[in-house]
Amino acid sequence: MSEEDETYTKEDWYAEEFVGRTFVRCAFQECDFTEASTQGSVFTECTFSNTRFNVSKHVDSAFVGCTFTRCNFFDAEFTGCKVMGSTFKECTLRPMKVSGGDWSYVSLFGADLRNCTFDKVRLREADLTSADCVDAVLTEADLSGAQLHRTKFTRCDLRGSDLSAVDPRNAELTGAIIQRAQAVTLAEALGVIVV
To answer: CATH second-level architecture of 1-92?
Structure first.
């Protein structure tokens, strides 16, 4: 059974467990998901504003085409989740941890992702324009087709990630940790012929 077109305001779901629940086009305003958990739940085209997800855990859940505005994800964890096409605006995301899952087409424009972890995450065609990924971990991530203009990867661990969309002239890579094969990809992006 799915809940559709509902509006929830200032709901207190502290440490609540959401298992196999479905929400479609619902609005969540100033709600509290602190220490809550979702398992196999689906949120489709929902909007979240001024909502707290601090220390929450999400496993095999989906947030597809959702919009998060001024939400707090301090120490939140996403494992095997599908967050395709969702948009994060003015959200506090650090130090969020993401393991596996599909975050393709997500918009993290200008997001502060310092110290965040994205391990084995699909971020195809994601918008990370002007995102701050200083000291972040983006290992074995699929960044193919991603928008990475003015993205800060200073001291970021990028080992094993697809860097084919990175233009070293338009991204900050000082101190970034990469593997030799990735260095070749970046060199070729600069027009260097590697032999």
So the answer is: 3 Solenoid (2.160)
